[in-house]
Amino acid sequence: TAGKSTTPLLRHFKGHRDTVTSVDFGCNMKQIATGSMDSCVMIWNMKPQMRAYRFDGHKDAVISVQFSPSGHLVASASRDKTVRLWVPSMKAESTVFRAHTATVRSVNFSGDGQMLATASDDKTIKVWTVHRQKFLFSLNQHINWVRCVKFSPDDHLIVSSSDDKTIKLWDKNSRECIHSFYEHAGYANYVDFHPSGTCIAAASTDNTVKVWDIRSHKMLQHYQVHSGVVNSLSFHPAGNFLITASSDSTVKILDLVEGKLLYTLHGHQGPVTCVAFSRTGEYFASGGSDEQVMVWKSNFDCSEYSDTVRLQHKTTSSVQAAPSSATAHLPLNSHPSAFLSQVSSDTQSQASDGGVPPSLASTLEHIIGQLDILTQTVSILEQRLTLTEDKLKECLENQMEIGLHLQKREDD
Question: With 0-12 CB in 10 A as exposed, 13-18 as middle and 19+ as buried, what is 173?
């Protein structure tokens, strides 16, 4: 850690044999999924006595991984042009489908867990059903590789970033591009929605992090705190913090309310390639070119802000790289700045007003999880049946060829 920050390194996972490209937490904090240039997907168990699972199946580098909202599936996107859906257990069963005609760089589940979005070097974004991996539609306006794709929290919008130096916002229902944000100095490696759904943040090759309002299309914040390419970012679920991973070998925590750098973490040797908050925001994980996965405890106080903070239309705030002393723990002010306002999220206020009882919610979650597994099992069986049919067909064709050959010899 840097300065007086007490952000503790909780766990340290070693097992990948090349750069870790992507990291994601399961919804219950029991598992972490990672992808790597070593072509493997790894599932790490947070309990120290439980060993990790290594999933071999992809024929080339795994670029992106994500848990489904229920945590019962893991999707992985690869340079081998395929996407795989895994059941994250010891059996390591998966279904595979050829999603694109080039490297698949990004995979993302919709909030309801029913759809998958994929982004590729073939310059397209595609949307699929999770059940049976049925192709739904394609978004085709980018003119270079598409690096990242994400659904908005309400699943109505899709955001994508490309090497054509644009970030595009799409309406999922009309399939139209609503707006293009231009990244003049570089392209965005990674883009994501703020939990409120009103803003997006982009991690850029020009070493900056930018935050835009998607309603006014204005840039709200511009962080120039890294000295290397910014590879990944993740919003805290409450919306008041943003973590960033950079090739300058640091992870930085930005306070979006105050518009300033909060911590700098030095843990990785070499570029930090991916970073993600857990679903509750209690932990975050980072992965790097040093083949290591690190899990940290978030010790910044989120209780000082009401349920969710929401970005407002204000003039752009720009944060320059701070002197080395600023990497120490900067105290959080308890008052919200004019830049962000404290707004309770509608969903959270509904829950506190006596929405779905916790026991029913957990039962429903369990049922959804079981349905996910059943769906996946059906898909796996269907794939096996197809393979068996193909083999039988091949055998019959061979038999017929042999028969014809023997017949010919008899005739001769």
Answer: exposed
Q: Is 56 strand, coil or helix?
A: strand
Using only C-alpha atoms, the chain has a radius of gyration, in whole angstroms, of: 23
Rounded CA gap, 281 and 98, in Å? 34
> Which pair of tokens denotes residue 63?
């670029």
In sequence order, the β-bridge partners of residue 139 are 125
What 3-state DSSP class applies to 385?
helix
| Over residues 282-293, mean pLDDT | 96
The answer to whether the beta carbons of residues 22 and 62 sit under 8 Å apart is yes
Q: Please give the pLDDT value at position 6.
A: 57
pTM of the full structure: 0.78
The secondary structure of 151-186, three-state, reads ECCCCCEEEEEECCCEEEEEECCCCCEEEEEECCCC
> Average pLDDT, whole number, for the chain?
84
The candidate with the shortest Cα–Cα distance to 60, out of 85, 77, 43, is: 77
- The pair of three-digit structure tokens given for residue 371, joined into one six-digit string: 């349905």
- DSSP assigned state of 38: T
pLDDT at residue 273 is higher than 70: yes
* Lowest mean per-residue pLDDT among 18-22, 84-88, 346-350, 371-375: 346-350
Report helix, strand or coil for 324.
helix
Please say whether the beta carbons of 371 and 87 come within 8 A: no
DSSP 222-242: EE---SS-EEEEEE-TTSSEE
CB 193 within 8 A of CB 199: yes
Length of the chain: 412
Percent of the chain clearing pLDDT 90 (strictly above): 65
Quickly list DSSP for 333-355: PSSPPSSEEE---HHHHHHHTT-
